Amino acid sequence: MVAVETRQRTIPYVDLAAQFAGEREELLAAIESALATGHWVGGAMVEEFEAAAARYLGARHVVSVASGTDALILALRVLDLGPNDEVITPPNSFVASTAAIHFAGGKPVFADVLPDQNIDPAAIEDAITPRTRAIMPVHLSGRIADMDAINAIAAKHKLAVIEDAAQAAGARFNGRAAGTLGTLGCYSAHPLKNLNAAGDAGFIVTDDAALAERLRRLRNNGLIDRNTVVEWGVVSRLDHIQAAVLRYRLDRLDGIVATRRNNAKIYRSALNDRAVFAPPCRPQEFNAFHTFVIQCDRRDALREHLAKQGIGTAIHYPVPIHLQPAARALGYSKGDFPVTERQAERILTLPVNQTLVRDDIEYVAETVNGFFR
Length: 373
Prior knowledge:
This protein is an alpha/beta fold. It has helices at 16-21, 24-36, 44-57, 68-77, 95-103, 121-127, 147-157, 209-218, 240-250, 253-270, 299-308, 338-346, 358-372, and strands at residues 61-65, 86-89, 107-110, 132-135, 160-164, 172-173, 176-177, 184-188, 202-206, 223-225, 228-229, 285-286, 292-295, 347-350. It has two domains: 21-250, Aspartate Aminotransferase, domain 2 (3-Layer(aba) Sandwich), CATH 3.40.640.10; 252-372, Aspartate Aminotransferase, domain 1. It has 13 helices and 14 strands.
């Protein structure tokens, strides 16, 4: 590793201003073109983004919506869940994963995770009951869960699989894109994601034409024409400007992921693996590294040390969902998911965004190593 300067620098966890600076002229032109059409909700740009995203993912249908949370809720709604119908999901995700099950009318049931933070297929099998309707793996940090094992379990028990691919834009498993491996796949295009809008946005992926048709109806008040409502829907439409932003950035996604993967590779070479654990990637995984998460002792002290050295970090997520106040009615308690709970005390997300250069990553790694020395 090259020598790292001793002077303090500022390494932001995320730098959206730097991203915009690198695309300013082209992105503003795309936005101006979208505004000039006069179609600010729906329209040709939305259809163009959906078609381009479907081609990129290798899927038959992409249905855009207003947010990643809406994508999850609507994907679950088309399963027609009843109040006692259960959906199995991990407890270490962002709260929207579990909240979506609640708002779709089902009951969240948790299963513990593996050392790589993704849901444990064996724990899924143990959590299945006669009331289970679906499995919702979360491809946390940009690493796709073990979909071969999960799909085998789903087939055995005749369950739907809803992929929460919110963090997995650009990720693949055995050569197939995140979101195309189950019944439905749900993406977020929040500004912090690899494929990011300039505000909230999301989309749903499926090969099922009937499900896609119903999703398009549900996102638009349940209307089949201007005056006919066939079921109660919501307003969750991708606006024209966000579609223009996403269409522009979709063509750059592979480059963004390549840079993040290279940053992760530098971390793996530079970090002291006796002090920190970064889950290795298996051959069938193509990790998009939405985040680069290490696990270590003295996490909070390390985070404070990094902050003093000008390095921004995050924790995804410090309180497991089953221990959140909103989840009390589900009946879980501390100790129910020991792997998740132990990881919540040890995980720390280091900056990995595509605006960083090699020297930035090495500075962060050396600062981490120095703390443990």
